[in-house]
Structures are given as structure tokens and as C-alpha cells.
């Protein structure tokens, strides 16, 4: 069961990470990275961010690049939330493939 504090921090991190990725992907034309969900551990030390990448064929490449730059992203996030959070959680990024799954089911139903 997620506490109210966890939910508030998850929403804050999702909003700020979305803004960071929006600024970064504005430089790479044609690729869109969105943060679909953020889940925070009960002790608020780890945040798992699930990313949706469009086009999906570049998903693993983009995710690898984001994981290589996780410390820089955490620093940018810390600068944005420094007045709301005392300590910025460690970030773990995962690929959210739910949209691909939905598209696959739609294709199967169309047949």
C-alpha cells in the first residue's frame, strides 16, 4: 500500500523528470520520451521511473543512454526539487512497453 507521502513525491518526480526529458528530447528531433509512472520505495530512497519511448524501436538505445547519464539526470532533478525534498532518491529507469502490448492486442483482435 502506497502512502500519501510516497504518492505526492512520485507525482512531483514524474512531473520534473518529464520536463527534463522534454528539454533533452527537443534537441533530438523525432524522438519522444515520456515518463508514464514513477514508484517510490517506502523509505523514499529509490525511485523507479517507467519511460515510454516513441518510436518504440529506439527504446533500448534511448534507455541505455539514459541509464549511462542517470547521475546527471539525478543532479538536474535535485536542482529542481531542492526546496521540496531534503534528499533526492536514487533513480532507476525501466522501459514501459504497455503501449506496445496494447498495440499487439489490437492487431490480434483486428485479424
Brief account:
By secondary structure, the protein is an alpha+beta fold. Helix content is 50%, strand content 22%.
Question: Helix and strand layout, with pairings?
Answer:
Elements: H1 4-25, E1 32-40, E2 46-54, H2 59-68, H3 70-80, E3 90-95, H4 98-110
Helix pairs in contact: 1-3
How would you portray this structure in words?
With 111 residues, the chain is an alpha+beta fold. It has a single domain, classed as K homology (KH) domain (GMP Synthetase, Chain A, domain 3, 2-Layer Sandwich). Helix content is 50%, strand content 22%. The protein has four helices and three strands. It has helices at residues 4-25, 59-68, 70-80, 98-110; strands at residues 32-40, 46-54, 90-95. It has a three-stranded mixed sheet. Strand 1 (32-40) and strand 2 (46-54) form a beta hairpin. Helix 1 (4-25) crosses helix 3. The protein is globular, with a radius of gyration of 15 Å. The mean pLDDT is 89.
Helix percentage range:
40-55%
Secondary-structure content class? alpha+beta
Output the CATH class name. Answer: Alpha Beta
Q: How much strand content do the residues show? A: 15-25%
Terminus-to-terminus distance: 40 Å
Average pLDDT confidence is 89
Evaluate the radius of gyration: 15 Å
Number of strands: 3
Low-confidence stretches: none
Record the strand order, biggest sheet.
Answer: 1-2-3
- Total helical elements: 4
Amino acid at each position: 500500500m502506497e502512502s500519501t507521502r510516497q504518492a505526492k513525491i512520485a507525482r512531483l518526480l514524474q512531473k520534473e523528470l518529464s520536463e527534463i526529458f522534454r528539454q533533452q528530447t527537443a534537441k533530438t528531433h523525432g524522438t519522444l520520451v515520456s515518463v508514464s509512472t514513477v514508484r517510490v520505495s517506502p523509505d523514499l530512497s529509490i525511485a523507479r521511473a517507467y519511460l515510454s519511448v516513441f518510436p518504440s524501436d529506439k527504446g533500448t538505445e534511448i534507455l541505455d543512454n539514459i541509464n549511462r547519464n542517470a547521475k546527471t539526470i539525478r543532479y538536474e532533478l535535485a536542482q529542481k526539487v531542492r526546496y521540496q525534498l531534503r534528499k533526492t532518491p536514487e533513480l532507476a529507469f525501466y522501459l514501459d512497453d504497455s503501449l506496445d502490448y496494447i498495440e499487439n492486442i489490437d492487431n490480434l483482435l483486428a485479424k
